[in-house]
């Protein structure tokens, strides 16, 4: 860890003065909030019969549902994504002005590579664990529960990739019509919720995975261009968005919780609703109000170094934090259920949270040490050559389907000899190979080269 700190400090000192450090800080903070939130709401315990129950804090203590307004910070990640994608896409457009071709395919394939490369180890490990547990005769429902819990974080990557893929279109819309591009998406999200909630149209609400998250991503462009003009504008945006959020949840039909609660008839996140969009707008106003203070704070080299360090391992922490949680829970169960006899939400349960969090961090640190290097272990896509358009589309489709199914139905299978849905595991690897990177790309490239030589 000391070497990682020294490297982060070196990179921090090299950062150009014009870089908006608040963007990097928010990216790191949002992931840490997700990690803490997951560790807090997942509350397994052993009941009076000796059976282990998968408790969920939001269902046990309804007042904690209000806490999701602070811990559901995926909107901030999409806001920051819009800002960052805007910066990098404009750099690509400048290359096009000098005659470079294939800029979108090269740019997008590179963005996919940075996001997906860290996923490969965690997918392979849990496929091996699921296979091993199945062959050892463990109950397949338990195998599925453990596997699905550990890999739930990958759903976000599927959605984020789709939003990133639309960057040229959404960026052009922002440049042409400004805030109207956001309000059109807001109107579409409202229409979808009306059809789903009041008209009972089945499955139409899944379109809000696009309208809600692209809408928040659009606000990142607004931030980048300084469209939030001064403190007064940002304060008005925050207060008005918060008022709408309160109306939708306290008076309206939407639940308070911004993540799913077991047994609830409606969820604000799967798929997202306009209540979650209102939360994203509220969070946007708040973080922009805090930006001047935050940028001054990050002039401190130690704080900026910590931010750089966290951003250098951000995907590793996000992808492996629930694996650490599962391993600690399994260890506690094997040790006779030590610490699992407390009912979630009691005073004793709250007092033990720091101890459990320390154990989760201890379990996570070796994973960071081993796997964080995968966040910077990639080279040029296809040796720098442009990836054909059809391969980009097919590759991204395979990756998104694989990641979405990993979170939705689990890689663990209730049938078959292996106990693993091999096609779900394979899709992200095959998609990456089509895009020109990943463990299978060597085989793909070798096979293609042999075919070319034969002809």
What is the structure about, briefly put?
This protein is an all-alpha fold and 455 residues long.
General description of the model:
By secondary structure, this protein is mostly helical. The protein has one domain (2-445). The chain has 22 helices and 2 strands. The protein has helices spanning 2-14, 21-41, 57-60, 68-71, 74-96, 103-116, 119-135, 140-151, 155-165, 167-177, 179-198, 208-224, 230-251, 274-289, 291-297, 301-312, 314-334, 347-351, 353-371, 389-408, 422-435, 441-454, and strands spanning 42-46, 52-56. Strands 1-2 form a two-stranded antiparallel sheet.
Strand order of the largest sheet: 1-2
How many β strands by DSSP?
Answer: 2
Which percent band covers the strand fraction? under 5%
Write the element-wise H/E pattern from the N-terminal end onward. HHEEHHHHHHHHHHHHHHHHHHHH
- Poorly predicted regions are 377-384, 451-455
What general outline do the C-alpha atoms trace? globular
Number of domains: 1
Largest sheet: 2 strands, antiparallel
Mean pLDDT: 88
Could you say which structural class the secondary elements and strand pairing correspond to? Answer: mainly alpha
**How far apart lie the N and C ends?**
52 Å
Q: How many H/I helices?
A: 22
Percent range for helical residues? Answer: 55-70%
Radius of gyration, whole Å: 23 Å
List the helices and strands and how they pair.
Blueprint (H helix, E strand, L loop, with lengths): L1 H13 L6 H21 E5 L5 E5 H4 L7 H4 L2 H23 L6 H14 L2 H17 L4 H12 L3 H11 L1 H11 L1 H20 L9 H17 L5 H22 L22 H16 L1 H7 L3 H12 L1 H21 L12 H5 L1 H19 L17 H20 L13 H14 L5 H14 L1
Helix pairs in contact: 1-16, 2-5, 2-16, 2-17, 5-12, 5-14, 6-9, 6-20, 7-8, 7-21, 8-17, 9-12, 9-20, 10-11, 11-12, 12-14, 13-14, 17-19, 20-21, 21-22
């Amino acid at each position: 860890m000391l070497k990682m700190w020294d490297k982060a400090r070196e990179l921090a000192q090299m950062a150009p003065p014009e870089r908006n450090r608040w963007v990097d800080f928010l990216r790191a903070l949002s992931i840490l909030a997700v990690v803490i939130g997951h560790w807090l709401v997942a509350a397994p315990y052993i009941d009076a019969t000796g059976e282990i129950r998968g408790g969920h804090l939001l269902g046990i203590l309804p007042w904690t549902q209000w806490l999701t307004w602070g811990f559901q910070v995926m909107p901030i990640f999409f806001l920051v994504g819009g800002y960052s994608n805007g910066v990098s896409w404009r750099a690509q457009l400048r290359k096009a002005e000098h005659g470079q071709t294939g800029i979108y395919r090269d740019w997008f394939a590179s963005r996919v590579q940075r996001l997906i490369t860290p996923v490969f180890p965690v997918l392979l490990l849990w496929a091996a664990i699921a296979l091993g547990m199945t062959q050892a005769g463990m109950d397949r429902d338990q195998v599925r529960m453990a596997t699905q819990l550990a890999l739930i974080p990958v759903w976000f990557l599927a959605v984020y990739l789709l939003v990133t893929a639309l960057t040229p279109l959404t960026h052009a819309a922002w440049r042409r019509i400004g805030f109207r591009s956001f309000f059109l998406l807001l109107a579409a999200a409202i229409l979808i919720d009306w059809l789903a909630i009041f008209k009972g149209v089945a499955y139409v609400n899944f379109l809000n995975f696009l309208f809600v998250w692209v809408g928040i991503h659009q606000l990142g462009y607004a931030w980048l261009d300084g469209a939030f003009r001064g403190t007064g504008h940002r304060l008005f945006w925050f207060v008005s968005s918060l008022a709408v959020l309160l109306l939708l949840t306290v008076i309206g039909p939407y639940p308070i919780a911004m993540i799913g609660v077991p047994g609830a008839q409606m969820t604000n996140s799967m798929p997202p609703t306009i209540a979650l969009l209102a939360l994203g707008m509220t969070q946007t106003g708040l973080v922009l109000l805090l930006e001047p203070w935050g940028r001054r704070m990050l002039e401190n080299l130690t704080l900026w170094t910590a931010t750089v360090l966290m951003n250098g391992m951000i995907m590793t922490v996000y992808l492996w934090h629930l694996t650490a949680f599962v391993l600690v829970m399994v260890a506690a169960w094997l040790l006779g259920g030590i610490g699992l006899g407390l009912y979630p939400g009691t005073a004793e349960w709250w007092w033990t949270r720091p101890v459990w969090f320390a154990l989760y961090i201890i379990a996570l640190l070796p994973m960071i040490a081993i796997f964080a290097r995968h966040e910077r272990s990639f080279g040029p896509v296809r040796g720098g050559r442009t990836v054909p358009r059809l391969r980009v589309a097919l590759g991204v489709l395979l990756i998104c389907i694989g990641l979405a199914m990993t979170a939705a139905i689990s890689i663990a299978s209730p049938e078959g000899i292996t106990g693993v849905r091999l096609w779900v595991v394979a899709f992200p690897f095959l998609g990456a190979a089509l895009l020109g990177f990943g463990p299978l790309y060597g085989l793909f490239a070798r096979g293609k080269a042999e075919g070319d030589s034969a002809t």
